[in-house]
Amino acid sequence: MAENKLKAKGAAFNELSSKEKSKKVIDLLLNNAMYIIIVLAVIYISIKVPAFIKLPSIVNVISLTAAKLPIALGIGGCIVLTGTDISAGRVVGLTACISASLLTTTFKVFPNMTSAPPIIVVLLLVLVVGGLVGLVNGFSVAKFKLHPFIVTLSTQLIVYGIILMYLMNGTNNGQTLSGLTEGYRSLITGTLFSIPTATGSVAVPKYVLYSIILVVVMWVIWNKTTFGKNMFAVGSNEEAANVSGVNVSKTIMMVFVLAGMMYAVTGFLDGARIASANANTGLNYECDAIAACVIGGVSFVGGIGRISGIVVGVLLLQIIFAGLNFLAVDANMLYIIKGLIILIACAIDMRKYLVKK
Amino acid sequence: MEKQITSSDSKNVLLKMEGICKDFPGVKALDNVSLTVRAGTVHALMGENGAGKSTLMKCLFGVYNKDSGHIYLEGKEINFKTSKEALENGVAMVHQELNQALKRNVMDNMWLGRFPKISKWCPLTSEKKMYDATKEVFEELEVNVDPKTVMSRMPVSQRQMVEIAKAVSFHSKVIVFDEPTSSLTEEEVEHLFRIINMLRDRGCGIIYISHKMEEILRISDDVTIMRDGQWVATRPAKELTMNEIIRLMVGRELTNRYPVKDNKVGDTILQVKNLTAQYSQLRDVSFEAKAGEVLGVAGLDGSGRTELLENIFGIATRKEGEIYLHGKQVMNRNARESLANKFAMLTEERRATGIFGILDIQANTTISSLPKYKKGPLLNDKLLSESTEWGIKAMRTKTPTQKTQIRSLSGGNQQKVILARWLLTEPEVLLLDEPTRGIDVGAKYEIYQLILDLAKQGKTVIMVSSEMPELLGVCDRILVMSGGRLSGEVSAQETSQEEIMTLAAKYA
Amino acid sequence: MDELKQETQQSKTPPLRGLYSKVNISVRTLNIIIVVLVILLIGCMAFGIKKGGFRVTFDTQGGTVVEMQTRMYGELLEAPEAPTREGFVFEGWFRDPAATMPWNIEEDAVTESMTLYAGWQQT
User: Fold this and answer.
1) Looking at the partner chain, which of C4, C14, C15 has a beta carbon nearest the beta carbon of B63?
2) Cβ neighbour number for residue C21 with a 10 Å cutoff
3) Sorting pLDDT into bands at 50, 70 and 90, what band is C12?
4) What is the ipTM of this complex?
5) Interface size between A and C, measured as CB pairs under 8 A
6) CA distance A178 to chain B (A)
7) Annotated domain spans of chain A
8) Is the pTM here over 0.90, yes or no?
9) pLDDT score recorded for residue B324
């Protein structure tokens, strides 16, 4: 069927005049500029450094994608509401610090503790913490009608302050938290399965599985629940949603709470993944996540976005950065490249919806 | 068609619009309209809502591109691209709704976009020049306002004076007043008329748009009447009476543009008592509606028609008043509560508060009745698409698939999708605000048919419309609103447009 | 009166809300901007790749100076001439100043910019 569609499109294309044809081609090129650049870059990199398309590197990219997916899934919802959330990275930091301070063998933050609490308790705790920050964001956006940018800017600062104070607690004195329990580490980074290669085997970590589960859960929430449908309606036209009997404030708050919980999961995974947590854990994660969402077609126009798009967006972004890392590009230059990618992605997104006027 | 402009008048013609046509998708908004304004006269432009008055003015100011026709200013053909260009060429407009920077002071607003420079070589703006120039214009117009007053501190009437002063400061030759007296007190109206008379004596041509007939007869020299996007008549005001104007404005005979009315009116099910709004002028409205009845609400723009529906549905804040459905009081504090109480509302601004433009038909159809499609905690795709399919079939919506974005449909089909949305909530009372606005004639007929079908099923339909023939053709009874109050209730069979017009002007 | 124009434009097209509701740019200009940005991005990447390479500096912690080396991802370092220091014997290169995490020059591949520290044994 897809083939027929393509054929039909091709036939329609042939009927156009040459001027219209060139216009169509330009449209196609510009609207997909981001993908074209990434594909070209990947081709170039794999020629230059063949190791880039070898199995260990591919598993590495997939693992990194899995680690960055939950936060992007959370922010995706905020963007569907035409908002954004720049407190995400700091919430990841806070929850990573909480996880690392509790599931440890040294207890620097809580010197009176002797044994680590059950992992599930810690997970629930960080979910509550993330959800609370999300609730504050959501409440301010829904009730005060403040722009999410301003709201999350302030919660970002507040959460950062809390992280710093939290790390000064006990005998820790602001140090990096490490010495995590074996149970916590193996639950997250333990081997899901190994792929044998000529020179040994490559292990796929367990958190890849958790990310896949989260993707499925979020897909169900977005597509199969009343809440998901309401979210798209509010993002598309808030006033119409209100008239149609959608509880707009509740929907906005729930989107932010859900996002906060996703950041908490990211933090929980990141603590074990990096095997340590400090005040800079999660720094700038929100930039990557927002960029990934926009590349993946979650539009700032509102009401548009798909989970599959977010997954592709995160994957593409990780591929390009892993590739640039292979070419040993300066870390400082990577910031500039990241900024440009976000800018181009937004400009292309804007273009798509301007053209349709 | 009548035309009575004598040849001696044509000498000092200032503005001449000839054979203006403008098509919107599905609607002929202007059909060969002509308008001639003589220097030193006030020319009134009259017509029902939607007769094409504002479209004509928008063509003059370049907001819309006219499809055909010519505009001459002092004999020279003009074709303005923007309202700024029009202003610079001496054609100004005083809007009904003022577009001003309220946080800035009077002179900033007067000179916005053309601040005077201190001198040729000094690009800084000169406060003093601005102040003096403003003062000068104000003295001319006998306006007693300090140019440094902040706009938001002044009453609407004075803000309007600033707008007029701005037009004067451009040395405008043609000034259009769009319903200038709608928010003025009698005293302020007198002042406005003095200014208009003064401008007229200076040789300006004034185009005056208003619904208020006494004003028109008092101030204007010529009157042009439009109807359905067509020019009907241009006559000296002296020769016209109020009844004559109404006859010309309404003028058309009822044809079978409406389906046969075969709904049966049942018992009273809805009672509204002393409804008064908190933030709008709506006050003390009481009425009853029966099962299977189509109840019309007529009135001029801003008479509180929309506010009435919004207050019943709970999307505007009520101050006082009670609503009873089947004798039981319902609160309807917000849309969700109203929905649960079996009310439904089609809003006036379809694009702003009706459709979810980028979402598909299915999402647009099912959004208000989502809980119905739940199986366990999740929504069931099959139920969703079945309901949507029902909506498309029942409304005879023309759409390729359920997954089509609603904004790619025509206005009439969009309206049908929204109607389907509300029918899926199984309402007993349907509030329809301008259900046929921006819809072409064929689709209108289908919407009327749907409304009558609903009434036949025993539902109560309350329908607001600016188009009186539509109300007369579809409704059983008609409530007439005027100035936020209920000014009358008439039976659609026995009343006439003239009677409704008179009632609508009662408190205006 | 320009507001009037905007108002009517909005009513003619479905309202696109969100962050782009006030976008005031033509498609043509936007195309040019996108092309410029893409060229800029490619330029940055090319520049980064050309200038690329991880810089490995050697901190001899009081010994004779050893020159830094630039390596690509996964490449090995070239063993530098062992530094000398009065009263100490050179032990090898380490990731940390305290000389606890050794770096095997022949085997360990470079994956980031870093500093290697010399380890000394007092004689």
Assistant:
1) C4
2) 13
3) very low
4) 0.83
5) 105
6) 41
7) 34-356
8) no
9) 94
